[in-house]
Amino acid sequence: YAFYYRQGTYQQYLAAKALKSQSWRFHKQYQTWFQRHEEPKNITEEYEQGTYRFFDYESTWMNRRKGDFKFAYKFLEDEL
NOT2/NOT3/NOT5 C-terminal domain spans which residues (predicted)? Predict the structure, then answer.
Protein backbone atom coordinates (compact mmCIF):
# COMPACT_ATOMS: atom_id res chain seq x y z
CA TYR A 1 0.00 0.00 0.00
CA ALA A 2 2.67 2.50 1.06
CA PHE A 3 4.68 2.01 -2.12
CA TYR A 4 1.83 3.02 -4.43
CA TYR A 5 0.01 5.59 -2.28
CA ARG A 6 2.90 7.34 -0.53
CA GLN A 7 4.98 8.14 -3.60
CA GLY A 8 8.04 10.26 -3.05
CA THR A 9 7.99 9.76 0.72
CA TYR A 10 10.19 8.01 3.21
CA GLN A 11 7.38 5.44 3.64
CA GLN A 12 7.68 4.52 -0.04
CA TYR A 13 11.43 4.09 0.36
CA LEU A 14 10.92 1.79 3.36
CA ALA A 15 8.28 -0.23 1.48
CA ALA A 16 10.64 -0.68 -1.50
CA LYS A 17 13.47 -1.69 0.81
CA ALA A 18 11.24 -4.30 2.52
CA LEU A 19 10.07 -5.70 -0.83
CA LYS A 20 13.64 -5.96 -2.15
CA SER A 21 14.72 -7.77 1.02
CA GLN A 22 12.12 -10.44 0.17
CA SER A 23 13.48 -10.87 -3.39
CA TRP A 24 10.86 -8.74 -5.14
CA ARG A 25 12.07 -6.78 -8.19
CA PHE A 26 10.51 -3.61 -9.54
CA HIS A 27 9.74 -3.59 -13.28
CA LYS A 28 10.02 -0.01 -14.57
CA GLN A 29 7.90 -0.54 -17.69
CA TYR A 30 4.97 -2.20 -15.91
CA GLN A 31 5.44 -0.18 -12.69
CA THR A 32 4.89 -3.22 -10.51
CA TRP A 33 6.80 -5.73 -8.40
CA PHE A 34 7.79 -9.20 -9.61
CA GLN A 35 9.23 -12.17 -7.73
CA ARG A 36 10.52 -15.44 -9.16
CA HIS A 37 8.01 -18.24 -8.63
CA GLU A 38 10.67 -20.77 -9.59
CA GLU A 39 14.14 -20.69 -11.10
CA PRO A 40 14.05 -19.12 -14.58
CA LYS A 41 13.97 -21.54 -17.50
CA ASN A 42 16.17 -19.25 -19.60
CA ILE A 43 18.79 -16.71 -18.49
CA THR A 44 20.80 -14.51 -20.85
CA GLU A 45 22.77 -11.30 -20.38
CA GLU A 46 19.69 -9.29 -21.45
CA TYR A 47 16.77 -11.09 -19.78
CA GLU A 48 15.52 -14.05 -17.81
CA GLN A 49 12.37 -15.99 -18.61
CA GLY A 50 10.16 -18.13 -16.43
CA THR A 51 7.23 -18.04 -14.04
CA TYR A 52 6.91 -15.01 -11.77
CA ARG A 53 4.58 -13.68 -9.13
CA PHE A 54 3.55 -10.07 -9.58
CA PHE A 55 1.54 -7.64 -7.52
CA ASP A 56 -1.58 -6.64 -9.46
CA TYR A 57 -2.21 -3.22 -7.96
CA GLU A 58 -4.47 -2.08 -10.82
CA SER A 59 -7.35 -4.55 -10.65
CA THR A 60 -7.18 -7.17 -7.90
CA TRP A 61 -4.74 -5.73 -5.33
CA MET A 62 -3.23 -9.18 -4.86
CA ASN A 63 -0.37 -11.37 -6.03
CA ARG A 64 -0.91 -13.16 -9.32
CA ARG A 65 1.22 -15.55 -11.34
CA LYS A 66 2.55 -15.00 -14.86
CA GLY A 67 3.98 -17.98 -16.73
CA ASP A 68 6.64 -17.77 -19.43
CA PHE A 69 7.33 -14.11 -18.62
CA LYS A 70 10.42 -12.46 -20.09
CA PHE A 71 11.93 -10.01 -17.59
CA ALA A 72 14.29 -7.77 -19.58
CA TYR A 73 17.04 -6.48 -17.30
CA LYS A 74 16.83 -3.03 -18.90
CA PHE A 75 13.51 -2.63 -17.04
CA LEU A 76 14.89 -3.75 -13.68
CA GLU A 77 15.04 -0.96 -11.11
CA ASP A 78 18.35 -1.38 -9.33
CA GLU A 79 18.40 1.75 -7.21
CA LEU A 80 16.86 2.01 -3.80
Answer: 1-76
